[in-house]
Amino acid sequence: MSSSPVNGSGIYACVGDTVTLGWSISLATGETVNDMEWFFEGSGQSSQMIATFVGSQFVRIAPNRPSLKLFNIYGLQFDLQAQQEYGTYSLHVNIIRNNSLARDSKYIYVGSPEPPSIQNQQLRARLLPEAKLVSQDWHVQLGCGNFQTRGEPPFTVVWKSPSGIIISSSEFVDNEYILSISNPVEEGTYSCHLMNSDPTARCVQTNASLQFSAEVDVEAKDVLLAIYNASCGHEMEDVASSIAEHISRASSPTVRLVNSTKPWRGRVEVFYNNQWGTVCDDNFTVSDAIVVCRMLGLQV
């Protein structure tokens, strides 16, 4: 595991990983390095020097850390051999500046990843009840959740579409990883998985939660309902409640969508008694929406 650490930051590694702390020090004109020292402070332990560099000689001091070696002038590299080697590593550089000594220090925490916690030990995938309007297009939202904690570092969740395409989650909201799918939505079974290449999965192979996956079936009627739930009171506030009833009364019924640039969105109007009219939206159902879509030649 390689890193160019930010001072005071943390990285995560598994026992057995090679850890690289690629520190760098900026020297001003005329400054020189007198010596360098590396320290380690484990949980509940005092800070101990583990290596030093004097003149041109790197000296490993810790007898139980045989893999310690110098990396790229100021850095340190070692094989993480046991849980006891998790902790804070620091570099202290004594610099000769204007005939006096000054010290520059760097710190980084090397930690063990923590697995996520899932409520009731059961991962859940679902279609969120409302779609989301993104750049004037409706996006259906799938959620993969029940997370109490996301693990440390936060775990990654990926989705597999019905056709087998792997998709990354869009965001994490209210304990769920969200997948946003633009129209037209592929029907079928979507599954979410905890990504097993993350540090957490590599370090905690025996944790049952890492093997979790969940599935949700998405059908056209579900997509229509999600879009309707989100748009009701906005663009579809004048949508009819009883399309079938109006159609049955007309000798040559015709339906159209208006006030939209998208062929699948807009206010529903029915041509009845030689004029176009907007129908009421009371008790409008998904079945009514499907009838309209089919009359417009849209696939449902």
Automatic annotation (TrEMBL):
One Pfam family from the record: SRCR
Gene3D superfamilies linked: Immunoglobulins, SRCR-like domain
Organism: Pomacea canaliculata
PANTHER family reported for this sequence: DELETED IN MALIGNANT BRAIN TUMORS 1 PROTEIN-LIKE, SRCR DOMAIN-CONTAINING PROTEIN
Domain of life (superkingdom): Eukaryota
Descriptive protein name: SRCR domain-containing protein
Gene Ontology annotations of biological process type: zymogen activation
Organism taxonomic ancestry: Eukaryota, Metazoa, Spiralia, Lophotrochozoa, Mollusca
MF GO annotations: serine-type endopeptidase activity
Ranges for domain Ig-like: 116-211
Keywords annotated in UniProt: Disulfide bond
